[in-house]
Amino acid sequence: MHMAITRSTATPAESGPGPGRFAPGKTRDIICLGRLGVDLYAQQVGARLEDVSTFAKYLGGSSANIAFGCARLGLKSAMLTRVGDDHMGRFLLETLAKEGCDTSHVRVDHERLTALVLLGIKDRDTFPLIFYREDCADMAVDARDFDEAFIASSRALLITGTHFSTEQVNRTSLTALDYARRNNVRTVLDIDYRPVLWGLTGKADGETRFVASEGVSAHLQRILPLFDLVIGTEEEFRIAGGKESLIDALARVREVTDATLLVKRGPLGCQIVEGAVPASLEALPMQRGVEVDVLNVLGAGDAFASGFLSGWLRDAPLDDCASAANACGALVVSRHGCAPAMPTPAELDYFLREAAADPVRMRRPDRDATLARLHRVTPARTPRDEVLGFAFDHRNQFFDLAQQTGADEARISKLKNLFVEAVAQTERALDLQGRIGVLIDDRYGQDALNAATGRGWWIGRPVELPGSNPLVFDHGRSIGTTLAAWPIGHTVKCLVQFHPDDPVEQRIEQESQLRALYDAVQVSGHELLLEVIPPKRDGVPNAPDTLYRALKRLYNIGLYPEWWKLEPVDAAQWQAIDALIAERDPHCRGVVLLGLSAPVDQLVEGFRLAAQSATCRGFTVGRTIFYEPSLAWLAGEIGDDALIARVRGTFETLIAAWRSSRAGAQSGAPAAALTREEKAA
Question: pTM for the full model?
Answer without folding.
Answer: 0.91
